[in-house]
Design goal:
Layout lengths: L1 H6 L7 H38 L7 H29 L3 H16 L5 H13 L16 H18 L3 E3 L10 E5 L7 H13 L6 E5 L9 H7 L2 E3 L2 H9 L3 E4 L4 H4 L16 H9 L3 E7 L9 E3 L11 E3 L19 E4 L16 H25 L7
Parallel strand pairs: 1-9, 2-5, 2-6, 3-4, 3-5
Antiparallel strand pairs: 6-9, 7-8
């Protein structure tokens, strides 16, 4: 293990070799990346030539396969680009973070910081000899999910004590669009919807939830989202998932939802221009209106600053009763009692994909779904006796 730690240069306690190790590691990384991309380009050109040899008699399935291949390549390159930017970032901050964590552990009476290092290295970086490196098209890592699922189960079962209603409304198989209210500052609601369906649904179905772009601006958080099932929010990604018969969770309120001030809690914001309705019409997917109660209280926003947030590439900096007053401890969400309600599916069988171009119809259907979710929120809040005990 000591040898592995030595190879991870920003955990190397010897400052004399840190800079040289960093330069060497980055050079090796870029050389390997360049060689790998060259091989990808060569193989891709061969594939395109094979399609071209069909002398203009390409079948529509072949064209679809080529289009799918291009999409997959674009997604892979986006992921590689994110990883390279993180790998090329200065390591000094990481070293300071490690020192800070070790100092705090020492103050708390931890006797072996090496044991703590071993734990984090094994959990987050894995063992190169044991890693499977199996990812889907959007970066979901099943091996990594097995490692972190106990943590999400703890949040679901013990910390927020989530109560799920109407899980039988989620189809046993096939595509489905879960449309939910959004809150909580960070996308905890998407994670809890995913865990809830996986744990409570008879078919143990998986849910892929869309995540706003700003989340990917945080170090490591973007990669963490990819590996745990999150998907970058855009219509193209959602459509591809639905066409493959996935369950997809979307949050039409977007950043306006998670950035609501506490005084506006459980009051749904505008649902944009009805992009989720267009998705449902184009892919002929049923919509499952979903209400999440409890997430509004985990980080109650009393004020938010947009001016200070712009240089960081995020929409706002929240001010809560605990943040920034308690420092890093202010990031810990409060243990409110959650309820997730899956309402009866809404189907648009009477409409076709061409109706997605009718903006007036889209707006009408969007408002109908929004009102459905708002009614369920209002009903649950009316019957709730306590924020902390339900």
């Amino acid at each position: 293990m000591e040898e592995e730690l030595h190879n991870i240069h920003y955990l190397n306690p010897n400052p004399a070799t840190a800079e040289a190790s960093q330069t060497s590691s980055q050079e090796q990384l870029f050389l390997r990346l360049e060689a790998h991309l060259e091989r990808m380009e060569t193989e891709f050109k061969k594939t395109v030539k094979q399609f071209a040899k069909q002398d203009g008699h390409r079948s529509s399935p072949a064209s679809a396969d080529l289009s799918e291949m291009v999409h997959n390549l674009e997604e892979r390159l986006k992921m590689v680009s994110d990883e390279v930017r993180q790998a090329a970032a200065p390591r000094q901050k990481k070293s300071q973070l490690i020192k800070l964590v070790e100092g705090g552990l020492h103050l708390l009476g931890t006797t072996s910081t090496h044991a703590v290092r071993d734990f984090f290295v094994k959990t987050w970086f894995g063992n190169a000899k044991e890693e499977s490196f199996e990812f889907d098209d959007f970066g979901l890592d099943p091996t990594f999910m097995e490692k972190v699922k106990p943590f999400f189960d703890f949040l679901y079962q013990d910390y927020w004590r989530v109560n799920v209603k109407g899980v039988h409304h989620i189809p046993r198989d096939g595509r489905g669009l879960i449309v939910s209210n959004h809150s909580g500052t960070l996308p905890y609601d998407g994670a809890m919807i995913r865990v809830g369906v996986l744990n409570e649904h008879p078919a143990r179905r998986d849910v892929r939830f869309l995540v706003e772009d700003f989340v990917y601006h945080f170090p490591f958080l973007g990669t963490f989202m990819y590996r745990t099932g999150g998907v970058r929010a855009c219509p193209e990604n959602a459509e591809r998932l639905l066409n493959k018969d996935h369950l997809v969770a979307v949050f039409p309120e977007g950043v306006k939802g998670i950035g609501k001030e506490f005084k506006n809690r459980y009051r749904l914001q505008r649902f944009g221009r009805g992009g989720f309705i267009k998705l449902a019409l184009k892919t002929r997917s049923p919509i499952i209106p979903t209400a999440v109660i409890g997430a509004e209280e985990i980080h109650p926003i009393i004020y938010k600053s947009t001016a200070l947030a712009k240089p960081l590439g995020i929409p706002y900096i929240p001010i809560t009763p605990t943040l920034p007053w308690l420092g890093p401890l202010g990031l810990i969400p409060l243990p409110s009692k959650w309820t997730i309600v899956f309402a009866e599916p809404i189907r648009f069988d009477r409409y076709g994909p061409e109706d997605a171009e009718d903006q007036m119809l889209v707006n009408k259907l969007s408002e109908m779904v929004r009102s459905n979710i708002q009614d369920h929120l209002s009903e649950e809040i009316k019957n709730r006796r306590s924020v902390w005990f339900g």
